[in-house]
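Record now logged for everyone:
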Amino acid sequence: MLSYIGKVIFLLFFLYSLLIPYTITNSFAEGDLRTERYTKKADENDNIGVRVNGSGKKYLNSDTRKNSVKENNHTSYADTQNVIAKNLQMAGNFLSSSPSELAEHAKSYALGQVNGLVTSEAQKWLSQFGTARINFGLDKKGARKNGSLDLLLPLYDNKADWLFFSQLGYRNKDSRDTINVGLGGRYFYQDWMYGLNTFYDNDLTGKNQRLGLGGEVWADNIKLAANTYFRVSNWKNSRDFVGYYERPANGYDISGEFFLPAYPNLGAKLTYEQYFGDEVTLFDRDTKQKNPVLATLGLSYTPVPLFTLGVDYKQGNGHNETQFLANLSYRLGVPLSVQLSPENVATARTLAGSRYDLVERNNHIVLEHQAKPAAQLSLPEVITGYSGSQQEITAKFSSESPLKQIHWATNKDFEQHGGKLSSKTGNTINVTLPAYLSGDNQNNNYPIYAVAEWENNQKSAPAEMRVIVRPFMLKKQEGANFTPAGPLPATGDQKDGYTFDPVITFDTDANAPIKNVTINHVQWITDPKIGPESGLKLLDWGTSDSVVLDENGRFKQKPVLVSTNPHKDVKVYLQIDSQPPELVGEVSFGDNPANSKDYSIGQSGITSEKLKSLSGGGYQQYQFMATILGGDGKPVKEGTVISDAHWKIDKPSDAGKNGIILTPDTKTDSKGNLKAIITSTKAFKGDVVVSLQVGKYKSVQSPTSTVNFGLAGISPITSDVPSPIVVGRTYNLTVTVTDGEGNPLPNKTVNWHTEVENGGDKNAVKIPVSSTTNSSGKATAILTSSTDQDVTVTASVDGIGTTQPLTVNFAWPTFSRPIPTGQSPQAPQPVMHGGTDFYTFTTTMYAPDGRLFENPSEGSLGHVPIKWWSELVNNTPLTFTPQKNTQPSSGEVTVQVTSTEKIKIHICVGIGIPLKPGDIPPSRKCVDPNNMKEFN
């Protein structure tokens, strides 16, 4: 289809070329205006084989263009004659050519017209959005060749010092389509421009991406730029080289353009760039170099803004190249006569003329290459195991080259936690897994790497596998992990013990038992702990912490737990390899039948003592206790359950009516004592007698004890200063907490609560949520408010009570009407404006209790905001300067007022916080109207 289109285009432009003689002849008959118009069109058609770099900017204004056209009519006429002569010569060449040469000339001419037309029209459309630059080309077969499009779009432009923009680009080179997306900003200060930009480059064809960061510094006749490039994509199959990978190369470039101010037609360009990698194609697509550098020196000559000639010399890493350049830059919308005027070259070199120029950078992604290894190496994706387990790993590979060696490696965490590789080389190795790490955010996932090396010294890309360590676990069973079911008597004999037989596994989906291995660091833990005090003992368990598992995952040596003391719900845990203990089960031991009926009360009988702690209701507590003897006449062991012990209150007989409560313990303490606590829900003072009966023995009474169940209390709140006080200052509040007998209670938490009166601002109140009583039972809190209001405070103690409310007041100081107290020495009356002569005004401040407010200094009253202003006038020209008070006890505050304009002032002063910025304080007073002052 494309070939037919190419033939049609060729035919149309061939016919058009036959009309050239008629066009040339007709041009001689036209006037100057038509001659200029034809010259412009002829010049546009003279783009055969030349790419047009256009710009949507008009670097000269319309008036300049009109004047330039008028001044250069003779130049346009001369140029028209040159163009006509050139076209006559072209037509003569066409007509003198052979038929085959004529066809080739016509085809080339047609392609040049298509390229120029497409570039021009696209440029004109894009230029309405910003600065555009297009390179477009078709080869002689009608196929698309190298080309590019760049567009700078202003996002914010204040036409002065700031410009923010985006730059979009597309290009096709070496059969690769690349897009560039960038954001940048330019700051114009004095005679310089400073710019920063960032770009994202994406090779759509090769799927390579990179980021770029750049900076610009421009002035008249000079442009400096620096760019860095960072890859964001990794190795991919190369499109240019068989058997290679490719990826973007990291690098940078530095460039500068310089023009002679005295002769702006001449310019020079210096560029230095370097990219990093072992095989980088910087110089051309076929030359791979290590960390190549490229320096470019260029010279240019611009006779007129439309046309530039140049030569570039490139040198880098043993390669050099010289390029001759010709650039046609047609400015759309600008008259041709302006673009052909040599005087306008200097305008293009100014900073103002280059404000919207495109960012100069290497928009083509420079690639790094790497030869593919001769073969691929593969490992198991994941292996899972438990601490200390060993697993065999075999590397699989395919290669026509003989294998020289396989190298293995892991990270330092694997080895630090006990992991081992049996060898660093070899096709097959054994891996010992590291210890399992317990707790949140612990890593139990480790990498192992392998690299194959062949006899031809090629190495494979590293292959990676993951090693996951799982914790030891008890396998869930239908029955218990111990036998028998119990409870068992506390005889201490093995026949009355629990045999534990759990199955050990690790955390996997299969939950399969761990067979025929030795596990280290195994411990049995009980609650209460094993030892003489609890009477618990573990039998058939050696001193070593290593155990052997059988083929079913059970311990070959099974422990037996016995007890000499009764216990209920003894929790038994198993801890393996320092992991968190795991519950195996709960067992109970009952009384020993041999001595369960022989518990008795010791000779000391029942004793009593007053406890320091209070009950939940705030009342005092008293403790009664008796020593319990076993059948052997010795105190029983700690934790012995005395199931047949009965406590009773014998006196007073109506203990229940008095709110007296008795709470007995069922287990003995470390000295074999059985205890009971009595307290009360009511106030009571009197004698109390309790009794205890154990088993078959008669009950034993306690001696008469005098008790006092008085209610604890909290004192009223006191303050260190009387109310009211100035806003922003503080009250130190204190309460005292005592028990029922008036003794101070330390370490009690006092909760503080506040309320504001009459719709006040509770957010302005600051007080701690709670405080703790000291050794004297006192708790303190500091109260303050940032606005004037009444605040009500209460304090409470859980289980004791709440104080009566205390109301305190915060108020602003009062003040007198300000009066004029002086002016600039030797100044006329009225004083002159200008910011030098001044008036002084003074007001007297009073505390909320009516006393003079002491120590006001330079208009500042601590937390009290003071504002000075003048009524009914614009305060902008006025300056208020607070003055230092030489007599702090006088309560006076003085301000000095100056003005930069002629104005009559009515000075006011206010105290308080305005509702919003710019408002007048709610409390204010002004100078007597008879004392108003004026700046002349």
The mean pLDDT is 80. The longest strand covers residues 600-614.
